[in-house]
C-alpha cells in the first residue's frame, strides 16, 4: 500500500512530500528520491503515513531506496566538487569581465550535470564561459538567470521577525506583493521597514491581506451626518414635499397634521392700496365713489374704482372739446374784427 513521507532535499533545503511503496522510513533516515530534476539525496523529517488513492495521484515524486554507504560517500564528494566549481566559475567571470553575480552552484546526484545560478541587471552573453567550464569540470554546464527574490531563497537568512526566511523554509512559489497591502493593514510605508532581505516588499504582507479585505467588505460604512442648513433650505423651498417626507419618516407619530403652507392674502394688497392717498377727480362721480369707499367690500371698491376711471376719462374728453370750441370762437371773433375794419 502507498504511503506518504516528508523528505528534506539537499538543495534547496525545503521539505517535499513523496510517495513511498513498501518502504517504511523513519525520522532522520537518509534516502534517494526521484524528483522533477532526477535523482536526489534527502533526509526524512516525518515518518511514513498511509494515504488514499487520490493522494497517491496528487503527488508525482517518489522514494527510490534507502541511501547506502556509496550514496553517503557521493553526497560528501558532491559538496567538495561544488566548492571547487564555484571558485573556478568566479575566476572565469572576473577574467572575462562579465556583468553578473554568481549565487550558487549545484551538482546533480549522478555528477553528470552542474547548474550555476547568477543574477544580472541586463542580458549577459555567457557562451564562452560555458565552454570554458565544460572543459574544466568535464560535465554538462547550465547557467540560470534568477531574480533577487530567488537569490534570497537560495542563500537564506534571518528575517526581521527573528525566524528563518519563509521562502527558504516552506514557500514554493512567490506571490505578487504591492504597496496596497501595507496600506490596507495600516502598516508603515517606510520601505526600510517593510522590505525583506531581497530588497523587495516582504512576502508576509500577503498572509493577512485577505482577512482585511473580507472585513472591509463586511463592515458597513457609517453614513455621513446630514447638512442641517441644506435641509432647512429645501423645506422652505418645497414645504408640501417636506410635510410628506416628515410624515413618512420616524416623526409620523408626533406630527399628525400637515404643516401650514404659507398662503398669499388677497386682501393685503387691497388694504395697502386703501391707505395710500387717492388722486381726486374733478367729476362728481369720482367724488361720490371716494366717499362711499369706506362702507364697501373689496369687490365693490374695485368696481367703483373702475367706474370712476371710466367717468374721469369721459370728463377729460369733454373738457378738451370745450377748449377747442373756445379757441375756435376766439379765432372767429378776430376774423370778424379784421373784416369790419
Word description of this protein:
The structure is a single chain. By secondary structure, the chain is an alpha+beta fold. Among the domains are: 2-67, no CATH class; 75-146, GMP Synthetase, Chain A, domain 3 (2-Layer Sandwich), CATH 3.30.300; 154-212, no CATH class; 231-260, no CATH class. 46% of the residues lie in helices and 17% in strands. It has 13 helices and 8 strands. Strand 3 and strand 4 (38-50) form a beta hairpin. Helix 9 crosses helix 10 (239-248) and helix 12 packs antiparallel against helix 13. The chain is elongated and about 160 Å long.
Radius of gyration: 54 Å
Shape: elongated
Structural class: alpha+beta
Determine the number of helices (DSSP H or I, runs of at least 4 residues). Answer: 13
CATH fold name of the domain at 75-146: GMP Synthetase, Chain A, domain 3
Notable characteristics:
single chain; 341 residues; alpha+beta; GMP Synthetase, Chain A, domain 3; five-stranded antiparallel β-sheet; three-stranded mixed β-sheet; 8 strands
Walk me through the topology:
Elements: E1 2-9, E2 15-21, E3 30-35, E4 38-50, H1 53-58, E5 62-66, H2 69-96, E6 101-107, E7 113-119, H3 127-137, E8 140-145, H4 148-155, H5 166-169, H6 179-184, H7 191-194, H8 209-218, H9 228-237, H10 239-248, H11 266-275, H12 284-291, H13 298-340
Parallel strand pairs: 7-8
Antiparallel strand pairs: 1-2, 1-4, 3-4, 3-5, 6-7
